[in-house]
Design goal:
This protein is of the alpha+beta class. Helices cover 24% and strands 27% of the residues. The strands form 2 sheets. It has a 3-stranded antiparallel β-sheet with strand order 1-2-3, with no helix packed on it. A 3-stranded antiparallel β-sheet has the order 4-5-6, with no helix packed on it.
Length: 116
C-alpha cells in the first residue's frame, strides 16, 4: 500500500475474492491476476467463436462489455518466422491440449517445419 507496511488477509468481498488490509494505515485492496483474467477472456472469446451463443448471451448484458474485453483477441497472430525455404507442399494442423491451449504444427516433406 502507500505506507509500505505488510498486507494481512482480511475476509472476502461480496464477490468472494480475498480482501487484504494494510497493517500500517488500514487501507484495503483486492489483488488482481491479469494473467488469469486474460486467459478467461480468451476462453470466453473462443466459446463465442465456436459456439452458437450470442455476445449478449455470453456477457449477460448488451454484449458491449464482451466486445470491449475481447478486442485484443482479434489481434492474436501466430509467430512462425519465415525461413525463406520453398517447400513443394505444407500441411498445417492443430491439436487442443489441456488447459485450453492449442498447438499449431506445420509439416513438410522432410517432417515438422515449425510449431507454436
Amino acid at each position: 500500500m502507500l505506507c509500505g507496511a505488510r498486507l494481512k488477509r482480511n475476509r472476502t468481498t461480496s464477490a468472494g475474492r480475498t480482501r487484504w488490509r494494510c497493517t500500517g494505515c488500514g487501507a484495503s485492496r483486492v489483488k488482481s491476476r491479469p494473467d488469469l483474467t486474460r486467459r478467461s477472456d480468451l476462453e470466453t472469446f473462443v466459446a463465442y467463436l465456436m459456439g452458437s451463443a450470442s455476445q449478449r448471451d455470453l456477457s449477460g448484458g448488451t454484449g458491449r462489455s464482451l466486445r470491449r474485453h475481447h478486442g485484443w483477441c482479434w489481434k492474436v497472430e501466430p509467430v512462425i518466422e519465415p525461413t525463406g525455404v520453398v517447400h513443394p507442399w505444407v500441411q498445417l494442423d492443430g491439436i487442443h491440449l489441456s488447459g485450453g491451449w492449442c498447438a499449431l504444427i506445420a509439416l513438410g516433406p522432410a517432417g515438422v517445419l515449425a510449431w507454436q
